[in-house]
């Protein structure tokens, strides 16, 4: 290790002098000064948890993409007193009459909790780029919402994603969601990097907190798809009280279209949306060689056609590059397995959560190490993704403030504040990314970056920071 720091690797094309991580305190640690306050969950009688009025009214309405390319949507809702109706009525303003689709409902028990009737209905073959209204419920308790399908998949289709992780249901969570909603750059769909309700922090994983989370987030999730990633707080594995099926509440409540991408489990899957190809991975499912997730991902990367979807985005919960003293190196074993593919297939950006703070990396990789050669320091790599940790949604566990010092060279920006991000894809060559901390005005960008797509701009440096 000692000698390593003296080595200077010269990147052959760009002629950059690299790998000074051992010797220098690089990067730009944010100078933002914030008062650290306790993060407290909103009480059960909070306005955001209010049950909609009317007998058996549908609640916790949420939608996600329902197929591979964005013509499908899965609509979910809960009725508390009785099953009620499984029907969704939907229409666009050009339609003369409403169409209807039939879903199914299910219930589950968790220790001494019994869920309401959780309905899921998949609607397929919608028109692209169309606003649809939909209704769930019957009689006096019909509730109406709307969503917009994405444009047809294609290389120059602009599209705006929001990004939130580790949200929970504290007062800060509510501020994060409010800032996302009020951001003048409107997200059309939200990429959620795992850890939803934090119900598992309550005694016996009180699943009532899954219900409150569903009601809290409905004001966004009913109107735009949230693309789900499983985090450790979705595991709900509690053998002490007889709960031995991992992800039970999560899978009953938050279905994803995993079969459409040939996946065999809802924890890893992919979707195309506009000009993006989004691969969702599971940090908490087996990913070693020969496992279902490994075999699926191995077959998945070659399917990505960058002439069709120039932007290749990966979501996972546990970050691979994280320089906080929380969850440090927890993502390491998965990085060892998959990072060579991420470099080979030029993944543009990897979003993770888990660490309750914000961090953005340089384009770096660390794939040369083979146990005996000692080459174990990340290097600048123009084929590598930018890694962004955005686990700063605001859950009750509070902020991760303790960082490794000095800031590693590979870490471009890090800050312990709650917030959300926006990825605004302009066309096949340009995407604008911004991170917004909760303390600022809605439009303020605390960190931002132009992404230049390396498949379509091969000679350009691929990012320009403007934070
Ligand atoms: C579940 O069990 C816990 C611990 O005994 C208790 O506090 C809680 O009230 C019970 N909940 C229900 C719904 O019975
Ligand atoms: C949550 O935020 C909304 C504004 O977006 C506000 O109306 C509501 O009162 C807040 N609720 C709590 C409990 O903070
Ligand atoms: C990749 O996508 C482009 C644009 O949609 C299409 O013309 C081409 O045939 C696709 N290539 C493959 C191998 O499918
Ligand atoms: C920060 O983390 C380091 C490494 O785990 C630990 O030694 C140190 O005590 C922590 N500092 C604080 C203020 O918690
Ligand atoms: C792509 O978007 C960028 C940023 O908005 C713009 O400068 C550029 O001209 C666009 N390229 C094309 C081919 O439209
Ligand atoms: Fe987590």
Q: What structural category arises from helix and sheet content?
A: alpha+beta
Q: Largest sheet, described in full?
A: 9 strands, mixed
The top level CATH class name of the domain at 154-194 and 267-452: Alpha Beta
CATH superfamily caption of the domain at 154-194 and 267-452: Metallo-dependent phosphatases
In terms of DSSP E residues, the strand content is 25-35%
Mean pLDDT, to the nearest integer, reads 92
* CATH architecture annotation of the domain at 154-194 and 267-452: 4-Layer Sandwich
Q: Spans of 5+ residues with little confidence (pLDDT < 50)?
A: 1-27
Kindly identify the CATH topology of the domain at 154-194 and 267-452: Purple Acid Phosphatase, chain A, domain 2
Supply Rg. 22 Å
Helical fraction equals 10-25%
Keywords for this entry:
12% helix, 467 residues, nine-stranded mixed beta sheet, alpha+beta, disordered N terminus, seven-stranded mixed beta sheet, binds fe (ii) ion, Purple Acid Phosphatase, chain A, domain 2, binds 2-acetamido-2-deoxy-beta-D-glucopyranose
In short:
Pfam families: Metallophos, Metallophos_C, Pur_ac_phosph_N. Residues 160-358 form the Calcineurin-like phosphoesterase domain. This protein has 467 residues and is an alpha+beta fold.
Characterise the protein shown here.
There is one protein chain. By secondary structure, this protein is α+β, with helices and mostly antiparallel strands. The chain contains 5 helices and 28 strands. The protein has helices at 171-182, 208-221, 248-253, 292-300, 332-344, and strands at residues 9-10, 17-18, 28-29, 59-65, 73-79, 87-92, 99-102, 104-106, 109-110, 113-114, 117-123, 131-136, 143-148, 159-164, 189-192, 226-227, 269-273, 276-280, 311-315, 349-352, 358-365, 379-380, 386-390, 411-415, 419-425, 430-437, 447-452, 463-465. The model is unreliable at 1-27 (pLDDT under 50). Residues 426-427, 429-430 line the site of one 2-acetamido-2-deoxy-beta-D-glucopyranose.
